[in-house]
Design brief:
The protein is built from seven helices and 13 strands. It is of the alpha/beta class. It has one domain: Class I glutamine amidotransferase (GATase) domain (Rossmann fold). The strands form three sheets. The chain has a nine-stranded mixed beta sheet with strand order 4-1-5-6-13-12-11-8-9, sandwiched between helices. A two-stranded antiparallel sheet has the order 2-3. The longest helix has 17 residues. It is globular. The two termini are 33 Å apart.
């Protein structure tokens, strides 16, 4: 059978501060191709170039990756400040309705970092621009200096709900992950369930209650060493399985709590 096609939402960037591109991380494409065993397809995140309806017909599932631009706070009823960073309004305009439609259809969806935050906002939730400023929270941001290995290094634990989707998928109630984010969830969107927290209480893993298909998101970056990492590999493998099932005309429900 032909491999399923997974649309990876591209990030708008400037090459040499001049040439605009829609880019996707190589690690993400490798994880999709080598672990999910699917075809990675970078999607230009601009509704003037591609519609949600066209994407739904073209792709079997969607991965919402991390990215430097943040979801614009107007999308969750707040005013933009310097702390909110930079934005990509075209990505907002495409992905937020895409998330809601995928959830309704049961089409597989995996959110990572910004994608994790996007899913919450799409379902009506809010974000905090700098969670390290909240009482008792650690600094979850990527280290500003060092090698790629040092920046993506495993740095904190995540504890899952016993018998929840992530516990059952990963076979453990506590795992170690990397952390490269500044923003975080505050108010949860409709049907958003936090299934995993960092040691400081920061939400790190969510699913959508009652979603008819695969709808998991994580705040960390599982694409790092996805082929060998014991947390990353089952996450991408299960996502690939869900996309294959969709391609065959079946819907694979999110693993729900017992």
């Amino acid at each position: 059978m032909t491999r399923p096609i997974i649309g990876i939402i591209g990030n708008s960037q400037l090459v040499n501060d001049q040439y605009p591109v829609h880019a996707g991380g190589t690690m993400i494409s490798q994880a999709i191709a080598q672990v999910a065993e699917a075809i990675p397809l970078i999607v230009p995140a601009d509704p003037s170039l591609v519609s949600v309806a066209e994407l739904l017909e073209t792709c079997d599932g969607f991965l919402l990756p991390g990215g430097r631009p943040n979801v614009h706070p107007e999308e969750y009823g707040q005013v933009a400040t310097e702390a909110h960073g930079t934005f990509d309004r075209n990505r907002d305009a495409l992905t937020l309705p895409l998330v809601r439609t995928c959830v309704e259809r049961g089409q597989p969806l995996l959110g990572i970092c910004r994608g994790f935050q996007e899913v919450n906002v799409a379902m009506g939730g809010t974000l905090h621009p700098e969670i390290r400023q909240l009482p008792g929270r650690m600094n979850h941001r990527m280290p500003p200096d060092g090698t790629l290995e040092e920046k993506f290094a495993i740095r904190h634990g995540v504890t899952f709900t016993e018998n929840g989707p992530f516990h059952r998928l990963l076979g453990a109630t506590r795992v170690m992950t990397n952390t490269l984010h500044g923003q975080g969830l505050v108010d949860l969107g409709r049907r958003i369930v936090v299934d995993g927290h960092a040691d400081d209480g920061t939400p790190e893993a969510i699913y959508i209650e009652g979603a008819p298909g695969y709808a998991l998101s994580v705040q960390w970056h599982p694409e790092w060493q996805a082929r060998t990492d014991p947390v990353s590999r089952p996450l991408f493998a299960s996502f690939g399985d869900a996309c294959r099932a969709w391609r065959r005309g079946r819907q694979t429900p999110t693993l729900r709590s017992a």
